[in-house]
Amino acid sequence: MAPKKTKIIAGNWKMNPVSVAEAKEIFLGVKKIARNLKNVKTIIFPPFVYIELLNRLSSLGEIKLGAQDVFEASVASGSYTGEICGQMIKSVGANHVIIGHSERRASGETDAVVNQKILSALRSGLNVVLCIGEKDRDKEGHYFHFLKEQIRHSLVDVQKKYFGNIIIAYEPIWAIGKSDREAMNPRDLHEMYIFIKKNLIDHFKTQDASKVPILYGGSSSSLIAKDLLSEGGVDGLLVGRQSLDVVNFGNILKIANDLV
Ligand code: PGA
User: Fold this and answer.
1) Could you report the per-residue pLDDT of 199-212, keeping only the tens digit for each?
2) Among 101, 103, 109, 134, which one carries the catalytic annotation?
3) What's the pTM value of the predicted model, to 2 decimals?
4) Is 171 an annotated catalytic residue?
5) Which is it for the CA torsion 163, 166, 169, 173, positive or negative?
């Protein structure tokens, strides 16, 4: 039998929870489940302020940690009030960063800024989760062109040697923050999965780019996780609200772990 391919289940906590005590409780609950699962890689993206503590709670590395954003300039320090650079993120124990989430793009982040952030994060030794996704799905299929351009502009000057450090999160904006009945259907998702892979191969001009994992995000839950992963064929999920619920997130982890 072919070996199982490890799925990636990532939790994007966004600006939640409101206290360090709650962050600790959720994290320890997830850790209890994650530590027994061998076929799933769990990554939690908490707000910056909780990363160091949560890293200490994951002493055996059962859960990987990531930040939700990074400063765009490739500098290690300086007069940039409010900014946090890649080296700082690494120094508190996180090794991933989400870049280009639609909620940040909504406040003005362009593909050019996303590109700068990706270059800066990769140079700092972080793994990047690049979020892409169309706002609407029009009948004419313009969203294909939109995604192609988003991939192209975001990855300008990213060298081939960084393949292993990039994950794509396909998060159609129309599917984020809804009920799981409104998530993307698995058949459409599979089509997008193939489309994104093809564009990565074209962009980097090598078949190796097909190794870049592609996650789906947008109202995923334990009820639809199996279909998204098996029929949709994606390499994992980026889970928003449900990642704050230990039981539901734990069930998603178990489903991903048990898939053949
Ligand atoms: P959601 O969020 O699962 O709550 O829809 C996903 C995301 O925005 O990453």
Assistant:
1) 999 999 999 999 99
2) 101
3) 0.97
4) yes
5) negative
